[in-house]
Amino acid sequence: MDGQTLHRGRSSTDMSAIIEFENIGLRYGADAEVLSDISFSLSTGGFYFLTGASGAGKTSLLKLLYLAQRPSRGVLKLFGEDVVMMPRSRLPGFRRRIGVVFQDFRLVPHLSAYDNVALPLRLAGLDEREISGPVEEMLGWVGLGDRSGALPDSLSGGEQQRIAIARAVIGRPDILVADEPTGNVDADMAKRLLGLFEALNRLGTTIVIATHDLPLIGMIPHGQMMRLDRGRLIDPTGSLRFPPDKRPALIQGLALGKPG
Amino acid sequence: MTMDEQQRREGGGGFAWSQRAGRAARNRWLPQGRRGPMPWIIAIMMFLSTLAGGAGLALSNALERMHGELAGGQTAQIVEADAARRADQVRRVAAMLRADKAVRMVRIIPEEALAAQLEPWIGADAGADDLPIPALIDFELAPGTTPATLKAIAMRAKAMAPSVRIDSHELYLGPVERLMRLLMWLAAGVMALMILTTGAVVTIAARSAHTTHRGTIDIMHLLGATDVQIARLFQRRMALDALFGGALGLGAASVLLWLAGRFIAATDAELTQMIALPWRLAVLLPLIPIFGTLLAMLTARITVRHALERAL
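The joint structure predicted for all components is written out below.
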């Protein structure tokens, strides 16, 4: 992918930590915490995987990352700023710097594939002339160049997922958060999409992918892993203890259902 | 394929196309299609508001005219059975009135005119010597004339015609004026209530639309939409509904007011004919739907922004 496709001017930060969690806890209403004592920091330009069993809290953690939820306690910093106490009027500016691939795609049902992909750029106020080229190129990239006028309902699950990915990366975000981004596509397409994420990562985007797909993790040699278990990071110190050199053993452990 | 899509594919079009395409795309963010009963409800509200407004303006105009025509208006009534004496007294009182600086107009009502007015009640004999009718002199006091001056005039008239009685027009038309004033305020009240109801209906509609499109709004929020961008969508939709409803309501009410005007003009009664809506006031009626549209936009904006503030 070239700079033309991801044309929006980057505002990359020089800080080493782009995401910082300090003793984060999250509960919904009066229920028990779904995330407890989460502390970690992610570096700018890093490639991270978030793993864990179903119900471990991956989606909740991602919600905090893409500002769909505020934590119940703790400090959450994005781009060096505490977003917990931030007035909500400032949140849209932060959200525009974060691309999100939702697990359930969350495409706007009455908008065409083209309009769905163009949505972040239009929300950012870009002129229509600056939008059409990148959107069509992106649709071509995800193999849906000929379905640009199709409504989401007329697309298969895999096609919808690809549209969701195209929408997430079109604005060349500083952070890309993806929840099971390859769950509905075949192996070839998964590889192609991962290539897209890698290209974006090479351009400086920090990638955070929640996935169960162990072969997918294996495809990114420089990626690092976090593992959640019942709302807690496996490593209570919060540092990322699963660098590439230890990953093969970990993946094997996950495959066998052992804790990391 | 739409024309915009065609142009987009062909890479054609310039700034104007880009602007238009951008606007069209933003307008699609909320689903198009059926709008529900909202425009029709607004049409009914605007119809009733315009009717009430028209009635209020016509009554206000009638009051203004009535006040202008009746202010200072007086009638001297001379009851004298002897025709020659009555004629002499009329002549002398009229001369005295004309000579007074406080009186700016004097008109002796011709006996034939009085007889004609009484004919329906007392037959063709009205005005005959054996059935005398009082003589009437209409006169108008100059603005600023005090009750003391009027009293002095009455005393002088009494000296010339002992049976004279002076009645102020305002005295017997006062109740009519008060009734018209009450009706005018009633019309204004109805209009104010209609406007309040329009605001309430728009609030409910905006809340309902916000709930219906919650999914789309959430997605847009997470993609970085501001509250203003989202509120603008609802504001535009409500403005279109209100404009449509307002135009329809104004049109229907205007036809009805015009018909009512024709009926009133046909009554041949001076008092009812005063209730007319002149063009200088009729042109104010379109302000009602315009105000209604602005109110709908503002209400939708406030309602949606208030609802959005509850989300993250």
